[in-house]
Amino acid sequence: MFTLTPAAAEQIARAAAEQPDNQGRPMLRVAAKCDETDGELVYGMGFDDEREDDLILDAGGIAILISPPSQPLLESTTLDFCEVQPGEFQFIFRGGCTAPPAAKSCGSCGGGCS
């Protein structure tokens, strides 16, 4: 299952509060796909509306939206917000390499930071 660390949830809630059209609970879409060039997993995220067939997870009051193609690629992935260099904070995707081999058709898995 996809999870958020408390630090990531806090930062997402802050960013959602700054959105001009913020209406209630933030909905964050998280996605992963295989890069056709080098076969690495590429991650993305952003505020979005719910779509048909989305998996919706509740993470500390934040709705996480994951479309069906991204679900196996994000299995066992954690989104963190941490200091990557002194004074520089970023969202980091960790894990995600436990998806079944058929789900990782791109050949390799970007299991570390991205």
Question: What is this entry, summarized?
Answer:
This protein has 114 residues and is mainly beta. 14% of the residues lie in helices and 39% in strands.
What is the CATH topology classification name? Answer: Hypothetical Protein Aq_1857, Chain: A
**Can you count the helices?**
2
In this structure, how is the largest beta sheet organized? Answer: 4 strands, mixed
Mean pLDDT: 81
Strand content: 35-45%
Shape: globular
Distance N to C terminus: 18 Å
By CATH's scheme, which homologous superfamily applies? HesB-like domain
The CATH architecture category equals Sandwich
Following the backbone from N to C, one meets helices and strands in this order, namely EHEEEEHEE
Class by SSE composition: mainly beta
User: How many strands appear in the DSSP assignment?
Assistant: 7
Q: What is the percent of helical residues?
A: 10-25%
Please tell me how large the radius of gyration is: 14 Å
Question: What top-tier CATH class fits best?
Answer: Mainly Beta
Helices and strands in order:
Elements: E1 3-4, H1 6-17, E2 27-34, E3 41-47, E4 55-59, E5 62-66, H2 71-74, E6 77-85, E7 88-95
Overview of the structural elements:
The protein is mainly β and about 110 residues long. It has one domain: HesB-like domain (Hypothetical Protein Aq_1857, Chain: A). Helices cover about 15% and strands about 40% of the residues. The chain contains two helices and seven strands. It has helices at about 5-15, 70-75, and strands at about 5, 25-35, 40-45, 55-60, 60-65, 75-85, 90-95. The strands form two sheets. The protein has a four-stranded mixed beta sheet. Strands 1-6-7 form a three-stranded mixed beta sheet. The two termini are about 20 Å apart.
